[in-house]
């Protein structure tokens, strides 16, 4: 595993935390796979309002979302926030194209490449096949992907040890459940989501072997109604804590929790990818399993500007790299003794004493 984030993670994370939750776009009226950020266009000029040294003023860097979209309150949104910060710091021009279906991955990636973007990101495991095709057809293009490994000399692949971070929120759930029933709502049943599930299950079991974990895959990352229905089933069955790893589908999990809290039932959701308490509130968000996609996108894109792009390499970011973990806001709802136990397990995972399963 490469650990390029270890030296600069603390400094860069401070910068990134200042923009977490900012730049959220609303609405869902994009056409032909493109989306326009609120108050602007899909392309933003880095020289306007930028505070950095403008080292990237001649660079155009783009990203293609998966079907969850740039407003998914999850990894697509986090990736876009990383590019927005890059724009502010370096003057690079950044743009995204939003994919509304699987059929749009290939044309959206091609649109970026044919538009002479210096680098194009594909966000999400399910873009992998399209990325492989575009990479082979355009060997001079510089590409990067989140959550998948594309074996091509012109693709930088960034993955995360989601199982490690999920183990820690599993510890929280296992120690804090009142019913000994816990739920997991997944999006599509793919390896990256199975890592979330496996790590979460292992964390729950480590601290509470009596707890029952019920798993519900919705089959989608962009269907809040399915997330709401899945959460309702789990809560009705007695689960008082649900961890979701389902992109925008998870918005429905939070909505169901909010409805129940308003009616007097105390239930919790554990968010994913971002600190989702900033979107959905502390009344229903127990904690979140943060995946610092914004940090990874920022760093690899900045490396490109600095002439250090490394295509053909795979980087895996876990607990020791600060690539996954819990947000500082966890202290609002998670007791100090539980957080102490979380930190104990974190250190045991980093040291190698505990090997967290991936499936």
Task: Describe the protein in words.
The model is unreliable at 1-51 (pLDDT under 50). The radius of gyration is 20 Å and the shape is globular. It has a seven-stranded mixed β-sheet with strand order 1-3-2-4-5-6-12, with helices on both faces. The chain has a six-stranded mixed β-sheet with strand order 8-7-9-10-11-13, sandwiched between helices. α2 runs parallel beside α10, α3 runs parallel beside α4 and α5 (162-176) packs antiparallel against α11 (336-351). By secondary structure, the protein is of the alpha/beta class. It contains eleven helices and 13 strands. The chain starts with a helix and ends in an 8-residue tail after the last helix. Helix content is 39%, strand content 18%.
């Amino acid at each position: 595993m490469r650990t390029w984030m270890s030296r600069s993670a603390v400094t860069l994370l401070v910068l990134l935390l200042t923009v977490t939750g900012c730049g959220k776009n609303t609405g869902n009226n994009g056409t032909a796979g493109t989306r326009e950020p609120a108050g602007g266009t899909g392309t933003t000029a880095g020289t306007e309002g930028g505070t950095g040294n403008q080292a990237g003023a001649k660079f155009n860097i783009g990203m293609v979302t998966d079907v969850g979209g740039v407003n998914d309150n999850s990894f697509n949104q986090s990736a876009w926030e990383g590019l927005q910060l890059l724009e502010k710091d370096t003057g690079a021009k950044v743009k995204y194209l939003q994919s509304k279906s699987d059929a749009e991955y290939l044309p959206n990636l091609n649109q970026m490449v044919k538009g002479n973007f210096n680098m194009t990101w594909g966000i999400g495991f399910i873009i992998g096949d399209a990325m492989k095709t575009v990479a082979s057809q355009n060997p001079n293009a510089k590409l990067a992907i989140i959550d998948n490994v594309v074996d091509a000399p012109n693709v930088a692949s960034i993955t995360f040890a989601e199982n490690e971070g999920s183990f820690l929120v599993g510890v929280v759930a296992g120690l804090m459940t009142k019913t000994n029933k816990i739920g997991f709502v997944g999006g599509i049943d793919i390896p990256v989501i199975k890592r979330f599930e496996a790590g979460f299950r292992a964390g729950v079991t480590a601290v509470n072997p009596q707890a029952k974990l019920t798993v519900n895959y919705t089959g989608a990352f962009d269907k809040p109604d399915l997330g709401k229905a899945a959460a309702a089933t789990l809560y009705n069955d007695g689960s008082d804590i649900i961890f979701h790893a389902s992109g925008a589908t998870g918005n429905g999990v939070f909505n169901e929790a909010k409805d129940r809290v308003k009616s007097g039932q105390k239930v919790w959701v554990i968010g994913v990818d971002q600190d989702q308490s900033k979107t959905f509130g502390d009344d229903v968000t127990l904690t979140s399993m943060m995946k610092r996609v914004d940090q990874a996108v920022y760093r690899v894109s900045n490396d490109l500007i600095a002439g250090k792009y490394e295509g053909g390499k795979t980087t895996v970011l876990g607990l020791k790299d600060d690539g996954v973990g819990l947000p500082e806001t966890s202290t609002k709802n998670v007791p100090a003794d539980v957080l102490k136990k979380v930190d104990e397990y974190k250190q045991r995972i980093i040291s190698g004493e505990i090997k967290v399963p991936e499936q």
